[in-house]
Write a structure and sequence with these properties.
- It is a single chain.
- The chain is mainly alpha-helical.
- The chain has a domain at about 30-70.
- It has four helices and no strands.
- The chain has helices at about 1-55, 60-70, 95-100, 105-130.
- The chain is elongated, with a radius of gyration of 41 Å.
- The chain starts with a helix and ends in a 5-residue tail after the last helix.
Length: about 130
C-alpha cells in the first residue's frame, strides 16, 4: 500500500512538473507570437507607405516635369527623318575577304554567291518597302 501511495505521489509530482513546464513554455511562445505579430504589422505599414511613395514617384506628370527639368530632350521634328536611300551602307567586302581567308575554297564559293544574293535582296526590299517616303 505504501508503494502504491509513493508511486501515486511520484506520478502526481511528475504530471505537475510537466504541466508547470508546458504552461510556462506556452506563455513564452505566446509572448514571441505577439512580438512577431507586431513586427509583421510594422512591415505591412512600411509596405503600404512605400507603395504610396512609389505611386507618387511614378506619376506620369511628375516624370514629365523631371524630364523637362533635368534632360535636354526635344520632340522630334519632321526634318529629323531621312529617306532610307540616304543612309550609307557599310562596305561588307572587307569583312567578306577576312571570312574567305579563313574558309576552305569550296565554302568560299558558296558563301560568295549567298552574300551577293543577300545584298541584292536587302537593297531591293529597302527601296520597295520605303517607297512612300519622299
Amino acid at each position: 500500500m505504501i508503494r502504491l501511495i509513493v508511486a501515486m505521489v511520484i506520478l502526481i509530482l511528475g504530471v505537475g512538473f510537466c504541466l508547470f513546464h508546458f504552461k510556462y513554455r506556452v506563455v513564452s511562445l505566446e509572448g514571441d507570437l505577439r512580438v512577431m505579430e507586431e513586427i509583421i504589422l510594422e512591415k505591412k505599414q512600411n509596405i503600404r507607405l512605400l507603395e504610396a511613395e512609389w505611386e507618387h514617384v511614378t506619376t506620369p506628370s511628375r516624370i514629365q516635369e523631371l524630364c523637362q527639368k533635368h534632360l535636354s530632350v526635344e520632340a522630334l521634328k519632321a526634318s529629323s527623318y531621312i529617306h532610307m536611300s540616304q543612309i550609307p551602307f557599310r562596305d561588307d567586302d572587307h569583312i567578306l575577304d577576312l571570312v574567305q581567308a579563313s574558309l576552305a575554297p569550296s565554302e568560299v564559293k558558296s558563301l560568295s554567291s549567298k552574300t551577293i544574293s543577300m545584298k541584292s535582296q536587302v537593297r531591293t526590299s529597302s527601296q520597295s518597302s520605303l517607297s512612300f517616303l519622299p
